[in-house]
Amino acid sequence: MPDLAKEITDGARAEALAADFLIERGMKILARNYRVKGGEIDLVAREGRVTVFVEVRLRRSARFGGAGASITEAKRRRLLLAARHWLATHGDTPCRFDCILLNRLSPEALTWVCDAIWDD
User: Fold this and answer.
1) 58-89: b or e for each residue (b if 16 or more CB lie within 10 Å)?
2) pTM for the complete prediction?
3) What is the pLDDT, as a whole number, of residue 63?
4) Whole-angstrom Cα distance, residue 53 to residue 55?
5) Which of 5, 113, 118, 95 has its CA nearest to residue 57?
6) Which among 40, 118, 110, 101 is positioned nearest to 31, based on CA atoms?
7) Bridge partners of residue 84, in order along the sequence
8) Do the Cβ atoms of 78 and 35 come closer than 8 Å?
9) Looking at residue 120, what is its pLDDT?
10) C-alpha separations of 16 from 26, 63, 90, 119 in Å
């Protein structure tokens, strides 16, 4: 049985690594774990005039496709719902969806995918 406390801690550590990575590249973190009914975004950042919605995924095994493959269509819909709410609440700005993928808790294991998720 998985250790839920460890998973929560690892998730928070992955998000902190991702936030630090983005800050080092000049982005400003506007929110962490932005939640609305039916949706959630791990990080909301600003790069210039662009609002960047960031999904952070940690998967230590590629057994089921790794971190990127864990972003399902249902997860994508929840991200879009939360992003629409953010934009309606904080101002409609140009935006994009990025992913930070980790296969272990290390900055060296981080992959940044810009413009990874879009609305059809």
Assistant:
1) bbeeeeeebbeeebeeeebebbbbbbebbeee
2) 0.83
3) 53
4) 7
5) 113
6) 40
7) none
8) no
9) 47
10) 15, 25, 23, 27
How is residue 114 written in tokens?
């810009």
User: In whole angstroms, how large is the CA radius of gyration of the chain?
Assistant: 14
Q: Please write the tens of the pLDDT for every residue from 73-120.
A: 888 889 999 999 999 999 989 999 999 998 888 888 888 999 886 554
Domains (range + CATH), the chain: 4-117 (3.40.1350.10)
Token digits of residue 85: 């709410």
* C-beta separation of 86 from 34 below 8 A: yes
List the structure tokens of 107: 């900055």
Q: Using a CB cutoff of 8 Å and minimum separation of 24, what contacts does 29-32 make?
A: 30/90, 31/86
What's the pLDDT tens digit per position in 23-32?
Answer: 999 999 999 9
